[in-house]
Write a structure and sequence with these properties.
Pfam family, one: HSP20
Family: Belongs to the small heat shock protein (HSP20) family.
Structural class: mainly beta
Oligomer: single chain
Number of domains: 1
Helix content: under 10%
Largest sheet: 4 strands, antiparallel
Distance between the termini: 91 Å
Protein name: SHSP domain-containing protein
CATH class: Mainly Beta
Order of helices and strands: EHEEEEEEEEE
Strand order of the largest sheet: 2-8-6-5
């Protein structure tokens, strides 16, 4: 008889509610992010992200440890940058009888709404030591032009 209770990371009702609220408000502001899973299965995990900027660019850094770059995909479409991937289970892990399991595995999905003034054809991505780094160059802000009424 085992004295320890098994614990497996599964989304709680609060996590599911948070994901639904994130998706609801996602498109309202630039760099809003979807921590949800875009309608996919709820057994996903969510890598953390930091977003910074200077006068020339935005930088998104995501912690995605335990993965290889071939398992991560970055797409840009309709003003959104989307990062997806899957952390696979280690060999023979499924055969073990876990007492506690906290390391996430499975697929993930993150999506960020970008400001309208970016240079989408110059977005760069790199992956080193478990950190995905995206550089999003800023575009020129188009100033309103005054038109004289004749």
């Amino acid at each position: 008889m085992k004295a320890l209770k098994k614990r497996v990371n599964e989304p709680s009702p609060i996590d599911m509610l948070r994901r639904e609220m994130d998706l609801f408000f996602d498109d309202m502001v630039p760099f809003s992010w979807s921590r949800g899973n875009g309608g996919k299965e709820l057994d996903t995990w969510t890598p953390t992200a930091d977003i910074s900027e200077d006068e020339n660019e935005y930088v998104i850094r995501m912690d995605i440890p335990g993965m290889e770059k071939k398992d991560i995909k970055v797409n840009f479409q309709d003003g959104r940058i989307t990062i997806t991937g899957e952390r696979k289970m280690e060999e023979k892990e499924d055969e073990k009888d876990f007492i506690r399991r906290e390391r996430y595995r499975g697929s993930f999905y993150r999506s960020f709404t970008l400001p309208e003034t970016i240079k989408e054809d110059q977005i760069q991505a790199s992956f080193k030591e478990g950190v995905l780094k995206l550089i999003v160059p800023k575009g020129e802000v188009v100033k309103p032009k005054s038109i004289k009424i004749n």
